[in-house]
Amino acid sequence: LRLLLVPVAVVMIAAHAWGWAFAAFAIAGVSDGLDGYIARRFDVRSELGAYLDALADKALLMSIFIALAVAHIVPVWIAILVVSRDLMILGAVIVSWVLDKPVQIRPLWISKFNTAAQIAFAGAALLTVLTSFVCTTNGSAQDGNTAPKTIVTLTGLRITDTTVGTGASPSVGQ
Fold it and tell me: Which end of the chain is more exposed for a tag (fewer CB within 10 A), N or C?
């Protein structure tokens, strides 16, 4: 479900349909949590599931952060940081396959925390724009109202800690 909602959320951000963008993103986030709960609760974990879960997380977060940066909702440097980290991880996995030395995907607790923090940040950014849009009289979330942008920037500084920290820590093992 998350992979299917990625293009929906991105298109809604591009169209400045903030309510629909937030809804698609929120449903994707909830489905991520439910998917993990079901896998653990009923012990239906698989290697394919682990790969698809990681792929869905990467696709969702990279796409959302790029779309939010293009829409001038989050600073470009935050999007670059998030996307660069995920591309490095994906690149390492691909190189290991090419070298015929596949690695097992075992995310560290800080990687899980980082993903949750990035999802919360992106959701908060969308919600901030949505509520700002609803509250402004001129119909723009950014014109004459710098509070949402300031909140998003300051909150974004916090996710840099975990993003950089997880980029320096391997989340895959042999």
Answer: C
